[in-house]
Design goal:
This protein is an alpha+beta fold. Helix content is about 15%, strand content about 30%.
Length: about 900
C-alpha cells in the first residue's frame, strides 16, 4: 500500500511549488500532470522481484496505457488539494518547496523520469481487473526493474504517466486518502541474492581541463567494475559520494545526484563518472560502492584528490566610449546622427526613441563612425535623420573608397531605406521600422509610398562588407552627404580590420522556411517552373547573401505533393521508380549545383535540401494504413488519432508502404550521387499534423509536433526506413532525419539511434543542457526552432536569442514562416522576414532589419566559434567567457551596447 502520493503539475506557469498531496484523486492528464507515489518496501527487503502489477481504481476518464518511472530523490507528500494547492510538499521543481531541487543542477522532475537522467522507465497497457463488469479497478504490469530500484534504495517511489493523453480528458485514479480504493502494488519475488557485490578497484581521478569553469571545476573518476555476487554478474547500481572533510564516513558523505550515476558494466569493465560543480583547489574524498538489486552494498572504494584552479578567462580592454549626439545641417532644417542598427526609433518622435544604445560607435565631435571587423565580415550602422524630414530637399549619400594597407571600393558599402509599419493591434500610432528598400540616389527622406503623416525621423541602413583577402590594419574613408549636388557634410569612417577571417561557409545554420507556393505571392503559377524558379532563386540568393539558408517545404499541410515539387514516379513497393527527373531538377538542382561547382563561391553552398518523402508520398497512407478501428477523436482538435497499443504501431502500415518509401529514398540517393551532389544532405522531415483540410488519410499521430509516446514510436518507424538507406562507406550521412521537439522532457530516449536533427522549440536552459549531453552521446545535431520571429522593435533580441542558443549547444536556428505576403507592408507581421517585393513591382523579396539582425547574429557566433577553437574551450567555458563580459547577465537579454562590447572583445582577441 502507498505511504505517500501526490499529483505534480508539469511545467506550470504560476504553480511552481504547488502540490495536491491531500487530493482524493491522482490526475493523469497527459503531459499536464502526472503522479508520484511512494511505497513501504521494507517487507520485501533483499527480494529479487520477478513480477510486479500496479492496481488502482479509476475515478474518471479512460486510461489506455500508463508509464512507470523511478523517482530520483526523496520527497514529501504535502497538504494541498487540486482546488487549493499548497507549497509544502513535492512540486515540479523541488521534492519539497523549502529544500533543494530534484538534482544539483536544478533539473526539474520531468527531466529525471520517463527514461531521462538515467531513470528506469516502462510502459504497459491498462486492463480492467474484471472485463465486462462495471468495476473500475485497473491492473497494469510493471517492469520488475522499476520496483527493484526501490528495493535497492535507488528510487524513492514511482512516477506514473498517462501515455495517450491526447485521447482523453481528465483521467484520474483514486489516491491513498480513500483507503478502500487506494492503489497498491502486487509483488512476486524471492530472496535468492545474499552475497554482496565486490569492491570496485583501480579507482583513479583526473581533472579534465574541459571541466574547468569560471566558478567551479570538475573531475572524472574511473574504476574497474566488480560484480553483483562478489566478482560475478553485474551490479544493479552505484552509490557515489564525496566530501571535503577527510574525517567524513561513507554514510555521512554527500551522495552524487542519481541522474549523474553511470550504469554498472560487467566485471573488469572500465566505468567512469563526470562530477562537475566542485570547489577549486580543494581536497575531496570520493567514495564508490556497488549495490546489487537486493540493496546490498559493497565496501566503498576511497580516493582523495585535490581539484585544480578555476578557468582563467581573458580580460580584453574596454573600448573607448564616445559622446554621441545629433548634428544640425544648416539650410536643410534637419539633424543627423549615427546609431547601432539593433536599436529602434519611432518615426513620430522628435528624437531617437531608444537612445544611441552603443557608446562605442559614434563620435559626434569628430563626426566619426568607429567600426571594427574581421575579413569577410559585414558591419552596419544607421544614419538617423530627424526634424522636418518631410520638407527636406532630395539628398545623396556617396561613399568614398576606404583606404589603408589596401583599398576597399566604395561599392562595398550599400544603403537601404528603413520602412515603418503599423505595430501590433492595440499599440496606437506606434510604428516599427523593419522592411529595407534599396536606396536610389538622389532620394527624399519621406516620399510615397513610404511617407507617413507626422513623420519626424527617417533611418538609412548602411552595410559595409569587408573583402576576405583584405590586409589587416586601419582604414579610413568618408560618407559624403549632399543636396542638389552641393556637399552638406562628411561623415568619417574609421575601420579596424583584424587578421582573422570569418569562414565563407557558416558553421551555424539559420534556416528560413518558405511555402511551396511561393510564386503565387507574385501572381505566378507555383507549378510552372518557368514562372516559379526565378522567384525562388531570388529568395535563396537573398538568404545566402545574409549567411542564411532559404528552404521550401516541398508539400503542404493538406498532404499534397505534385510534380515538379516531387519527381514523376510509377509503380509501387520495391518496383517503384522515378520516371522523369527533368521537372524536379529544373526546379531544385540550381540550388544544389552551387555546392558541386568548383567555380561557385563557397558562401553559396547549399548544405541541405528537404525532399518530398513524407507520410503520403511516395505511397498513400490511406491505402496502406490498417489501424483505423483503433482511432478516437482528439478532444481538442476533434480529428481522429491513434489510441491503440503502442506496440502495434509498427504493424499499422503494411510492408508494401515501407518498400515504396525506401524505393523513393533510394532513387534520391542514386540521383544525388550520379550528379556528384555530395555536399548537400537530404533532409527527411515529416512536418504534418492532423488537419481538417487534409487530402487523403491524415497521419493519426502528431508527427510535426510529437509529445506522446505514440508520436515518437511512429517517427521512429519512419526514421528506421531512413537509417536503412545509409551506407558505411559514406564519409558523412547523405540522409538526415529531422524531428520537431516541442518538449525536451517528452523526447526522453526516443530515436537515440535514428534521429539526426532535433529542431527544439523548448526554451529552458537547464533542459537544453540535458539535451546537449544526449546530442553529444548519440552524434545528433540540435537547432533552435520557432514558428515565427515577431517584429518587436527591439532587434537586439534576435542576436541575443541566437547567441544564447549557440552557447547552450545549438548548431542552428530554424524559423518556419519567413516569406511575407504583399499585404504585410501595411503592418508589422512576423512572417515577413523576407518581404514580398510585389507591391514595389519586383519579382524578388526585400530584406528586413530582422534579416540583418540574423546576419549580425551569425557573424557574432562565428567570432565565438573562432575563439572557442583557438582556446580549446567547450561551449560551457565559452558561455562563462561571454557572461563574464556581460557582468553575469543573460546574453538573451543583451542590449545593443552589450553586444557591441562583446564584439569588440572578440575582435581584440582574434586580431
Amino acid at each position: 500500500m502507498p505511504t505517500a502520493d501526490t499529483t505534480i503539475f508539469c511545467r506550470p506557469a504560476s504553480l511552481r511549488t504547488a502540490n495536491v498531496g491531500s487530493d482524493p484523486a491522482l490526475r493523469l492528464q497527459g503531459r499536464r500532470t502526472f503522479a508520484i507515489c511512494n511505497y513501504d518496501v521494507s517487507a520485501i527487503h533483499m527480494w529479487t522481484i520477478h513480477r510486479a502489477v500496479w492496481h488502482a481504481h479509476l475515478e474518471s476518464g479512460d486510461i489506455r496505457e500508463l508509464g512507470f518511472s523511478t523517482v530520483p530523490a526523496a520527497w514529501v507528500e504535502g497538504h494541498g488539494t487540486f482546488d487549493t494547492p499548497h507549497s509544502d510538499g513535492a512540486a515540479y521543481n523541488r521534492p519539497q518547496s523549502s529544500r533543494n531541487s530534484w538534482s544539483s543542477d536544478a533539473t526539474p522532475l520531468d527531466l529525471l523520469v520517463r527514461g531521462n537522467g538515467g531513470s528506469i522507465y516502462c510502459t504497459s497497457p491498462v486492463e480492467l481487473a474484471e472485463p465486462g463488469t462495471t468495476d473500475m479497478w485497473i491492473s497494469v504490469a510493471i517492469d520488475p526493474s522499476v520496483v527493484q530500484a526501490m528495493v535497492s534504495g535507488g528510487s524513492h517511489g514511482i512516477a506514473i504517466f498517462d501515455e495517450t493523453g491526447r485521447t482523453h480528458s481528465r483521467p484520474a485514479v483514486i489516491a491513498s486518502r480513500e483507503s478502500r480504493f487506494s492503489h497498491y502494488l502486487e509483488i512476486f519475488g524471492s530472496i535468492n541474492d545474499i552475497k554482496p557485490p565486490a569492491e570496485v578497484y583501480n579507482l583513479k581521478c583526473e581533472a579534465d581541463p574541459r571541466l574547468r569553469r569560471s566558478a567551479s571545476v570538475g573531475v572524472v573518476l574511473t574504476w574497474k567494475a566488480a560484480g553483483d555476487d562478489d566478482y560475478k554478474g553485474r551490479a544493479f547500481r552505484y552509490d557515489i559520494r564525496y566530501s571535503t572533510d577527510p574525517s567524513t564516513s561513507f554514510e555521512t558523505a554527500t551522495p552524487l545526484p542519481q541522474n549523474l550515476l553511470p550504469v554498472p558494466g560487467p566485471p573488469k569493465a572500465t566505468d567512469g563518472v563526470v562530477i562537475p560543480g566542485l570547489d577549486p583547489q580543494t581536497t575531496y574524498r570520493f567514495f564508490i560502492a556497488s549495490v546489487d538489486e537486493a540493496g546490498q552494498s559493497s565496501r566503498p572504494a576511497v580516493l582523495d584528490y585535490t581539484t585544480p584552479a578555476l578557468l582563467e578567462l581573458p580580460a580584453p580592454a574596454m573600448p573607448p566610449k564616445y559622446r554621441p549626439g545629433q548634428i544640425f545641417l544648416p539650410g536643410l532644417g534637419i539633424y543627423y546622427s549615427i546609431r547601432d542598427p539593433l536599436s529602434a526609433t519611432d518615426p513620430f518622435s522628435k528624437t531617437v526613441l531608444s537612445g544611441n544604445n552603443n557608446p562605442f560607435l559614434w563620435e559626434r565631435d569628430a563626426r566619426t563612425v568607429h567600426l571594427s571587423a574581421l575579413r569577410n565580415e559585414s558591419v552596419a550602422f544607421l544614419i538617423t535623420f530627424s526634424g522636418a524630414v518631410t520638407a527636406a530637399p532630395p539628398l545623396e549619400i556617396r561613399p568614398t573608397p576606404i583606404k589603408g594597407p589596401s583599398v576597399i571600393p566604395a561599392s562595398a558599402l550599400n544603403c537601404w531605406r528603413v520602412v515603418y509599419h503599423r505595430a501590433s493591434p492595440g499599440a496606437g500610432r506606434r510604428r516599427i521600422g523593419d522592411a529595407l528598400v534599396p536606396l536610389k540616389m538622389p532620394f527624399r527622406l519621406a516620399a510615397p509610398p513610404f511617407e507617413i503623416a507626422g513623420q519626424r525621423i527617417q533611418d538609412i541602413y548602411c552595410q559595409l562588407t569587408v573583402p576576405p583577402d583584405l590586409p589587416p590594419g586601419l582604414y579610413h574613408g568618408t560618407l559624403q552627404i549632399s543636396s542638389r549636388r552641393r556637399k552638406v557634410t562628411s561623415i568619417n569612417l574609421l575601420l579596424k580590420i583584424g587578421s582573422a577571417t570569418i569562414p565563407a561557409v557558416p558553421t551555424f545554420t539559420f534556416e528560413l522556411v518558405g511555402p511551396p507556393d511561393l510564386a503565387s505571392l507574385y501572381r505566378r503559377d507555383p507549378l510552372d517552373n518557368t514562372q516559379a524558379v526565378p522567384v525562388e532563386k531570388a529568395y535563396v540568393s537573398l538568404a545566402s547573401a545574409n549567411r542564411a539558408v532559404f528552404t521550401q517545404m516541398p508539400y503542404s499541410r493538406e498532404g499534397n505533393c505534385r510534380p515538379p515539387l516531387a519527381p514523376e514516379i510509377e509503380g509501387s513497393g520495391a518496383a517503384l521508380r522515378v520516371t522523369d527527373w527533368h521537372s524536379w531538377d529544373e526546379r531544385f538542382s540550381n540550388r544544389i549545383q552551387n555546392a558541386a561547382s568548383p567555380r561557385a563561391p563557397a558562401s553559396r553552398e547549399v548544405p541541405f535540401l528537404v525532399v518530398p518523402t513524407f507520410e503520403n508520398w511516395p505511397a498513400s497512407l490511406h491505402q496502406h494504413y490498417h489501424c483505423a478501428d483503433w482511432e478516437v477523436p482528439d478532444p481538442y482538435s476533434h480529428y481522429p488519432i491513434y489510441a491503440g497499443a503502442s506496440s502495434e504501431i509498427p504493424n499499422c502500415i503494411d510492408p508494401e508502404y515501407w518498400k515504396s518509401f525506401r524505393a523513393a529514398l533510394r532513387a534520391f540517393e542514386i540521383h544525388f550521387l550520379q550528379n556528384h551532389w555530395t555536399n548537400t544532405a537530404i533532409h527527411v522531415w515529416l512536418n504534418n499534423i492532423p488537419a481538417g483540410s487534409y487530402n487523403g488519410k491524415p497521419p493519426p499521430w502528431y508527427l510535426g509536433a510529437p509529445v506522446y509516446r505514440n508520436d515518437f514510436i511512429a517517427l521512429e518507424r519512419y526514421a528506421a526506413a531512413v537509417a536503412a538507406m545509409r551506407r558505411p562507406e559514406q564519409r558523412k550521412k547523405l540522409f538526415l532525419f529531422r524531428v520537431n521537439v516541442p518538449d525536451i522532457a517528452a523526447l526522453g530516449r526516443y530515436g537515440t539511434d535514428a534521429f539526426d536533427l532535433l529542431c527544439v522549440s523548448d526554451r529552458d536552459p537547464t533542459r537544453w543542457h540535458n539535451l546537449r549531453r544526449r546530442a553529444l552521446t548519440y552524434n545528433e545535431t540540435i537547432w533552435r526552432a520557432d514558428k515565427r520571429l515577431s517584429p518587436s522593435g527591439n532587434d537586439a533580441l534576435i542576436p541575443g536569442a541566437a547567441l544564447a542558443a549557440f552557447l547552450n549547444g545549438a548548431d542552428g536556428w530554424t524559423i518556419l514562416h519567413t516569406a511575407g505576403r504583399a499585404a504585410d507592408w501595411r503592418a508589422a507581421v512576423p512572417e515577413s522576414i523576407l518581404y514580398c517585393g510585389a507591391p514595389l513591382k519586383k519579382a524578388a523579396p526585400l530584406p528586413s532589419l530582422r534579416l540583418k539582425a540574423i546576419l549580425r547574429a551569425e557573424q557574432d557566433i562565428e567570432l565565438l566559434a573562432l575563439l572557442q577553437q583557438r582556446e580549446h574551450w567547450t561551449r560551457e567555458q565559452l558561455r562563462d567567457f561571454v557572461q563574464s563580459l556581460l557582468g553575469g547577465g543573460s546574453v538573451a537579454d543583451a542590449s545593443p551596447a552589450d553586444l557591441a562590447l562583446l564584439r569588440s572583445a572578440l575582435h581584440q582577441l582574434l586580431r
